[in-house]
Structures are given as C-alpha cells and as structure tokens.
Amino acid sequence: MSEIADRVEIRTPSLYKHYGSKEKIYEAVLERLFEPFFAALDQFVDSGWSARSGREQIEQIMQHLADHPNLPRLIQMQALAGGDQLEKLLDKLYRPLFRKARRLMPSVSDAGGWSSAELRLLIIGINNMLIGYFTMAPIHREVLGKDPLARSAIREQADFLSAVTRRLWMQEETHEAP
Fold it and tell me: Residues near 169 by Cβ (< 8 Å), separated by ≥ 6?
C-alpha cells in the first residue's frame, strides 16, 4: 500500500480511507480497465454488426488492451489462482461481459448451421484470441522477432479478428460461387 501511495503522491492512510484494502484498490482498477470493453460491447449491441463497425470496435478493444497490457495478465493470473478474487472478477466483470457478447451472436436459426454449443465456443475462442494475444506477447516477440504490441501489429491482429468474426460468427461468404 505504501508503494501505491508513493506513486500517487499521497499518504498511505489516505489510501485506506478511500479504499479500505488492497483488494478494494485491485477491484477499482479492474472495473476502470473494463469500462471501455462494456462501452464497445454496448455500441455493438445497440448498432448491430457490420464489417466496418465490427472492425472499428475490435481495433478499439485491441488498442485498449495494448494501452493496458497488465489487464489481460491480471485476468489470466486470477483464472489460474482461483479463490475469492476470481469470483469477484467473474461476478462484476466477466459474467456481464459474456452476457453482452452472447447478445451479439446470431440466433441458432440464423447461424448457418452452428449449434448453440458451437456459438458459445466461438465466444470463448474470440475471448482467448484477445486475451492470449496480449498475455503471450513477450514470448511471441522473442520467437517471431516482431513486437506484437506495435501499432501495426495491433492493426494486423484486429484485421484478423474482424475476418474471423465475419467468416465464422456472421457467416459472411469468403469465396466466389462456382
């Protein structure tokens, strides 16, 4: 707590007065970092999907994660550690996030043959592509010799995720008819 207080240039007792504990600070940080995700998903839900708006929203989310690379790491750390903090993360952030993501999915009758179980797996897969891209960035940087957090790499990944969502999620045709 004293390190945090020093960084924000206040006294430690002031931190306890505002937050009460390290856990409360942690929760406040996570909530603040997740707000842009909720805003982007609300925009998706309210405006519907189009290739252009979907691409812009994906890039916005990717850029937010690039600007806050510890967020995916914190999520992964909590998933591995389990316990009370994971339950709080699930209740306050992840369950609402997944509920919103589900509202963006096509209905089973409109999903081009995807079952409801497969549609749920698409949500998981997209989440893993987003979070994993950032949690594995240090390894990918070393192995591939390219910085995955560079703006051009973020745009490239956003283009890829946009293509994935168009092809899998929204059943866009990707080839010419014979």
Answer: 104, 105, 106, 122, 126
Low-confidence ranges of the chain (pLDDT < 50): 172-178
The overall pTM is greater than 0.85:
no
Q: Which two tokens stand for residue 78?
A: 């909590």
- Residue 103's Cβ-side half-sphere holds a number of Cα atoms within 13 Å equal to 14
Q: Is 117 exposed, middle or buried, given 0-12, 13-18 or 19+ CB atoms closer than 10 A?
A: exposed
Distance from CA of residue 170 to its chain's centroid? 19
- Domains of the chain by range and CATH? 23-169 (1.10.357.10)
Q: Residue 167, Cα to own-chain centre: how many angstroms?
A: 20
Comparing C-alpha atoms, which of 134, 155, 133 is closest to residue 60?
155
The sign of the torsion formed by the CA atoms of 25, 60, 122, 164 equals negative
Q: pLDDT, tens digit, for every residue of 53-79?
A: 677 778 888 888 888 888 888 888 888
pLDDT score for 178: 35
